[in-house]
Amino acid sequence: MGQEDILQLLGRRGVTVAEVAEIVYKLQRPYNDLLQLEACVESVMSVLAKREVQYSLYTGIALDELAEQKLLPQPLQSIMEVDEGLFGVDETLALGIVHVYGMIGLTSFGYLDKEKIGIIRTLNDDKTSIHVFLDDLVAALAAAASARIAHQNERAANYSS
After folding, report:
1. Which of 39, 109, 145, 154 could link 44 by a cystine bridge, Cβ 3.0 to 4.6 Å?
2. Could you read off the pLDDT of 29-39 as tens digits, one per residue?
């Protein structure tokens, strides 16, 4: 189990690092005119290297897959099938990823959860699969990678004396 395994699992569920990196780029480019897409890919890979991130992804994806196979107990099965708006457990799991890089990750996650940019929208709107957890986990991954870049921006204001 490791980064290669999680990349394969994401790929099987229709998510690529490049798609997540595109979201990161859209989030950070307005604040960093020197930002390159390659740095966004590297940031996503760095976040994916964290074991706690991998564990969150494994857990959420497993629940999505079990729901697709109709193997969850009721009422959880029905909740997952309709992606119940008041469920909230999917966002709660995603917050573990978001908090790896602080509050900026949290605000970015809230934005992405509401706006559903790129692959997040694709996952959310997919009627052939269940992605109750995965769309939020991908938003969290993008938010964390974006926050990581923000924290590393050498051109950010320095207020030390």
Report:
1. 145
2. 999 999 999 99
